[in-house]
Amino acid sequence: MQIIARRPAITLLTSIAILGLAGMAGSAVAGARTLVFCSEGNPEALNPQIVTTTTGLNAARPMFNQLIEFEPGSTRIRPALARSWEVSADGTEYLIRLRDGVQFHTTDIFMPTRAMNADDVLFSLERQWKEDHPFHNVSEASYAYFKDMGMPDLLETIEKVDDLTLKINLTRPEAPFLANLAMPFNSILSAEYAAQLLAAGTPELLDEKPVGTGPFIFDGVQKDVAVRYRVFPDYWDGRQPIERLVFSVTPNPAVRLTKMKAGECHVMAFPNPSDTKTIVDDPNLRLLQQEGFNIGYLSLNIAKPPFDDIRVRRAINMAIDKEAVIEGAYGGAGVVAKNPIPPTLWSYNEAIEDYPYDPLAAQRLLAEAGFPNGFETDLWYMPVSRPYNPDAKRVAEMIQADLAEIGIRANLVTEEWSDYRDSLQNGEHTMALYGWTGDNGDPDNFLNVLLGCTAARMGGNNVSRWCNAEYDDLVTRAKLSYDQSVREALYRKAQEIFKRDAPWVPIAHSVVFMGTRDEVDGFRMDPLGRHAFDNVRLTD
């Protein structure tokens, strides 16, 4: 077995150093009401406009709000920075009325002189949309999520009616548009702060020292160690009971559990399924779990031979024993995936039959494709726990063994998490483990963002580079209709095409676990993978 680490991984020594630093924070903060969250990885950035992973989005979440938000624990939308909205009969015009008196954060380099208004909304959307915007190219931002959602072609005009009113005109109806406004990439930044930074010649600080309207103020970051926040006393939705919040970067799930047991963190992400009994049996800890709104999959890069041959892709689908993978790597905490969306999401096509686990049939297909003796390739795996894949290295090793049975010799490759994501989006891989947690409760967020032709671009989230015109037409038409029955029929047909072309091996819809200490009150899991610390308390 060959394992290639293309960039240095976090070593045990590094983990011990992180443990010590977080421990000092945890031991000193009880009286100061500091909550420490053991995060699973480094955020790639702290501005939600320029990240796509749940790790990065969750690290940005305490500092920002959107016009619209999802109710905690659900996919229902409700007003946030927008107090109300009206939609035209044809679904192309949105009149947005803003909440009055919302304050931005005051930091060591910025003191706002006004409340949030329409200029801030214009700035936040146009930065991502307009290529000639003075901040568009700052921080080498690519706005992958904004582009993958088709926003550049969807937006026609954004007009400021007055300080607290905007009109957004779309080029076409878009059924998920309000839910999309609730997603983190549409967070509202301060135009006044941006103007100050531009005048000072330091525009990159907009992304490095973020300023938002959220419940917590950015208080510093140390790569591979922690992101720190402090409470925003003038938060529009009420001051939080926690004074300080720390995201302690702890990639190893065993170390996260050790720290939580020792009281060095209060909440931990994604314990190993094999460790859940340890949490349940500890009177000081609590185990949280929910059926995952997710998909873990093996991406097959069809831009690279031999994965451009449908017979090879189907053979790989038939060679992998997914039941064994879920038992061996997920601890049984998941269900076999056959479609690219979870079974809990409306429009899931139950009638589709999965490829059977049949190594002999897989060998015959490989021979038909011209590979009677198999071939050699790479198999990439994530270096961190993900909600859709708790142990990617173990999954990769099991898949590697299955593929060896049909003659495919897979070399295991990994990278540091943010580099891994970039490499996949840049098409460097051949086969790679990846996954997704739904962001807005709409099938479009899976079927279009992960598999549509727009997202198949370099830097997009369609890392298999699969672009099927018939499929793309179906998912595009589905967005135009506000009739859910019409959308369901289109999405079910799209899933049939996906299954036929096999650009992925769908592996699992996992059960997601989190752990908390007993003194944590008010923290709950979220179906969209959000770690929200609003209104969370530490009891005595």
Main beta sheet: 13 strands, mixed
CATH first level of the domain at 294-512: which class? Answer: Alpha Beta
Please identify the structural class as seen in this structure: alpha+beta
Number of strands: 21
C-alpha end-to-end distance: 50 Å
DSSP summary: helix tally = 18
Structure, explained:
- The structure is a single chain.
- By secondary structure, the chain is α+β, with helices and mostly antiparallel strands.
- Among the domains are: 65-205, Alpha-Beta Complex (Dipeptide-binding Protein, domain 1); 294-512, Dipeptide-binding Protein, domain 3 (Roll).
- It contains 18 helices and 21 strands.
- It has helices spanning 12-28, 54-60, 118-129, 144-148, 151-154, 177-181, 191-200, 205-208, 253-261, 276-281, 310-319, 322-329, 359-368, 392-404, 417-425, 444-447, 469-480, 484-501, and strands at residues 3-5, 34-39, 68-70, 77-79, 82-87, 93-98, 155-162, 165-170, 216-222, 226-231, 244-249, 267-269, 285-291, 294-300, 334-336, 375-380, 408-414, 431-437, 504-517, 520-521, 537-538.
- The strands form 4 sheets. Strands 1, 2, 9, 10, 11, 12, 13, 14, 15, 16, 17, 18 and 19 form a 13-stranded mixed beta sheet that branches.
- Helix 11 (310-319) packs antiparallel against helix 13 and helix 12 runs antiparallel to helix 14 (392-404).
- The model is unreliable at 1-31 (pLDDT under 50).
